[in-house]
Automatic annotation (TrEMBL), chain A:
SUPFAM superfamilies the record matches: WD40 repeat-like
Annotated spans, Disordered: 385-406
Protein name, per record: Serine/threonine-protein phosphatase 2A 55 kDa regulatory subunit B
Family: Belongs to the phosphatase 2A regulatory subunit B family.
Any one cellular-component term (Gene Ontology): protein phosphatase type 2A complex
GO molecular function, one term: protein phosphatase regulator activity
Protein species of origin: Nannospalax galili (Northern Israeli blind subterranean mole rat)
InterPro entries documented for this protein: PP2A_PR55 (IPR000009), PP2A_PR55_CS (IPR018067), WD40/YVTN_repeat-like_dom_sf (IPR015943), WD40_repeat_dom_sf (IPR036322), WD40_rpt (IPR001680)
Entry keyword set: Repeat, WD repeat
From TrEMBL, chain B:
Protein name: cAMP-regulated phosphoprotein 19
Record region (Disordered): 1-45, 71-109
Alphabetized UniProt keyword annotations: Cell cycle, Cell division, Cytoplasm, Mitosis, Phosphoprotein, Protein phosphatase inhibitor
Phylogenetic lineage: Eukaryota, Metazoa, Chordata, Craniata, Vertebrata
Location relative to the cell: Cytoplasm
Record-stated family: Belongs to the endosulfine family.
A single GO BP: cell division
A GO term for molecular function: protein phosphatase inhibitor activity
Amino acid sequence: MAGAGGGGCLAGGNDFQWCFSQVKGAVDEDVAEADIISAVEFNCSGDLLATGDKGGRVVIFQREQENKGRPHSRGEYNVYSTFQSHEPEFDYLKSLEIEEKINKIRWLPQQNAAHFLLSTNDKTIKLWKISERDRRAEGYNLKDEDGRLRDPFRVTALRVPILKPMDLMVEASPRRIFANAHTYHVNSISVNSDHETYLSADDLRVNLWHLEITDRSFNIVDIKPANMEELTEVITAAEFHPHQCNVFVYSSSKGTIRLCDMRSSALCDRHSKFFEEPEDPSSRSFFSEIISSISDVKFSHSGRYMMTRDYLSVKVWDLNMEGRPVETHQVHEYLRSKLCSLYENDCIFDKFECCWNGSDSAIMTGSYNNFFRMFDRNTRRDVTLEASRENSKPRASLKPRKVCTGGKRKKDEISVDSLDFNKKILHTAWHPTENIVAVAATNNLYIFQDKVN
Amino acid sequence: MSSRGPSGEEQKEMEDKVASPEKAEEAKLKARYPHLGQKPGSSDFLRKRLQKGQKYFDYGDYNVAKAKMKNKQLPAAAPDKTEVTGNHIPTPQDLPQRKQSLVASKLAG
């Protein structure tokens, strides 16, 4: 199957063979809340992998270059930089605690030697510059090598400082702080294809920013009703189209997606396209609306499709067809008969993300028990894999997992009642061109690679 | 022993349970929480969701209470300092401290 680095089948035995590559993070039984990973994102080349956590910290990993001295380290991701992006705050006026948890990270396309990323918590978006320094100037006239100022009257000769190599230092500095534009909690940020603007979305509004301007933001969607008692839905995710800089989509808690065109009006309250799958009214239940709430929306790289994740499934939509999705993939249908307990323990409100591979031939999303699911759109095959330390020998193949729903449990199957609902995989990322995936399992980051890779 | 087949209504209920595990789960929920009023799509439900992060310290109440009870002892804080609710008048010392993440991430270790 042709395709840039992403074609081929998924289930073991054919083209793909997913293998364990690395795992990052502590092995502690007791996980500190701050260590829970809340965002995972590859940059545009895939050389950098950023994670954000509940403690407001960002850790960036860099892929090792091919090294003849250490052949097995090729493709390994090692720590490149780490910094505290957001701190906890308290809004005294509203008695509101503002968590430092990183909700989303989005990389900017690289334009020079430095790397830039946007990271956001519930209220504030920050633009971080990550740059390398590997040279240092020596031979200053007005100060000593250790930095002490020289008495200018004692300087008898002038010299030109020279640049000397030094140990690589990676610095992260906040270049822009985009604050005070969101009354509600920010759930999404998305960089525009024009590389100049980006959007941020909260429960009721979507704002448009210019990357250079922090004191102004344009509101482009506002679904807040005049009377809050008429509130029927909230915005759950938003994203810019990958190529058309005037187009973006936002999803709702009612399972609908609206596509908006910024050329048609300044305030995009009226959508250009409205995507909704018709529902069978006789099958409606107390849970229907909750499980239809879309937790993530992602355009395909081609820009022709978009994918949405709701509680039990992933749907692929053709942008030219609003009436229904072109594909529906069941993630964990067996949970439908467990909705009562999942409502009681709040798991029914878990927000899973989803992602495309580089060629849009496959999609991936997480589930419970540290399981994650991959769907091949061409062969229509799917596989369930597990992120576990028990299966973490270098280059060990991952064995497909199966959940049994009926009475008779086969060997190696796990029954629905034995699933650990505290082990949720909410965040996953797929390398932009290669078959490498990053999976966040609570406080651990797993990296899996295709053997053939 | 006479055996009768399920009545029309019972049959429909059984069919529902088989055809729709969701409806069976809904019945389970309603049985456990008979007073479950809030529909998921209701504005109350959504507004609660919008208010995540609300703490209960009210600076105004605190000062009014302090003024009223100038000479009396303020009700003491519960030994467990994680919850600040109820009749106890919170003081800034009582509020659970927001722990700042000064420790580096273990992913970078």
